[in-house]
Every structure is written in C-alpha cells, then in structure tokens.
Amino acid sequence: MPPEGLQTLQLGMDFGRGDEVLTTTQDYPRMITTFKQRERRDGIVLRQIRLPVPAEDPTDVVRLFEEAITPRTRAILACHMINLTGQVLPTRELSAMARRHGVPLIVDGAHALAHLDFKLSDLDVDNYSSSLHKWLFAPHGTGLLYVRREKIREIWPLMAAPEGMDDNIRKFEEIGTHPAANYLAVGEALTFHQGIGAARKAARLAYLRDYWARPLLELDGVRLHTSLKPGFACGIANVQIERVDSEALTTHLWDRHRIITVAIKHPEFEGIRVSPSVYTQLEELDRFVGAMTQVVRNGLPA
Fold first, then answer.
1. In-domain check, residue 193
2. CA distances from 16 to 8, 89, 98 (A)
3. What is the tally of structural domains in the chain?
C-alpha cells in the first residue's frame, strides 16, 4: 500500500457542501491542506480545535473533540501521535466517542506505527493509515492502510477500481504497476523491528528522550512541549530555549555541531523537534546537551 492511504480516506469519503470535518490545529500540514482543498473544491468546512501542549489528560482531549461536534460533522481526523511534539492522543477513546456520535474517525498513525508498542486491535478503530519509512525503516513509498471490513464499501479508492471490488480492500491498491522491490523490502524491515521487539524498542526510544530532556530541563529558560509521563509520548520531543529563535537554533546546531533537528514554529508554540532513533548513541546525545547548554548560557554566536 502506498503512503497515500490517509489521503485515500480524506478524498474517498463522500462529503457535501456545508459538511464539516473536525481536527486539531496541530494536525499534519499535508492532511490539513487536503481538507482545505476540499473546502475550495467541494464547499466542505474544516473546523480545528486547540489542544493543550502538552496534553496529559485523555478525558480532556476527548471532551474537546466531542464539544466541537455539530449536526454537520461528517468526519473527525486525529493523529495517533502528533508529529510536532510527539504527543500521543487517546485513540481508542476517541474512536469510541466518534462511534457514539455516528461520525467516522480518520486515524493518522504515521509516527506511531513501529514507534509505540501497540496492536491495531488495541485501538478498536475503523481505519488506520501509516507510512512505513519513518519508524519501521522501510523504503520510501511504502505504507499501510487498514479499513474495517464493513467500512470498505463506504470509501472510494483514489485510483478507479471495478464495481466488483467495492467491498475488497485490494481496491485501494489499484495504482498500476507496483514497485516490487520496495514492497519486498517491507518484510526485511518487519523482521528487523520484530527482532528488536516493539516493547523494547519503545522503551529504548523513551530512554533516549529522557536522557537528553531531563538535564536540559534543569536549565533556566528551557521549556519542553512534550510530556515525559508514560503513555503521553515516546521518542519524539519538542524543546524550546526561551528568547532564542528556533529556526536560528536549528541552523546553529547543524552548522556548528552537525546535529540535525527540525524547527517547529507553530502559532501556539515553537521549539525544535528532537527525534533520536534506535541507532542513536549516548555520546551523540551528550554532544547535543552540551551544545544546547552553551546556547542557554551564552546565546547564539553572532
């Protein structure tokens, strides 16, 4: 399955003029752009809610979504893990709430799959989409789309399929000639992931996050936009040095220390996203902590 599985859901659901789609202000930009194009083309309405940063009360997250539902709500889009901060949303609870209201929940699992330790059956969702090149380390261009069997007919494929495939999950693979090498390599990536073990991998990623985050939090002027409490995040975290521009900080870390981070400048917060992986060494994180400490104490060099 190509990584466009999530857009299959976004573009394959039938919406009419005035129908509303609900998501957050922190959703992935490509997903927001897709629904904004449907606003322009189909006359739907995209409604976005704000979530706390970090969000450490699952009941509050579900409440914020539920309070924003209106009689015109036709779908809800939610990340399993938000790419900006690594925030994990209560997907199972959101799915149950959406089902009570008869509203489909579209789940973006791009950063959660092979990152968090879970099974799809744990979430009780009607669909789940993920790219596989992120935390599974499969080739670019590979992805996963799960749709509950009885929901397949409701969703149109991006590429046309014959009527006889209306109830067949394979209709979403009608993309022409498949890149066989990429798909065959998914098996190798799964073998590597299973060799590590999902629980052990998640524990390692959380350990690496805490390894750099806790010493930085001891410094004045450092703010973490990611929860360190179990279950609310894992390997990704977003950290800010107050009064230091995050884009300039990212450039400094690369130019002076060859450390790759991502500047996040969101209307509600800013910081740099730090994402160690299983191959990251503690010595590399020590260099990162040292470089950040210098900036906290001395500012960015002129």
1. no
2. 17, 28, 19
3. 2
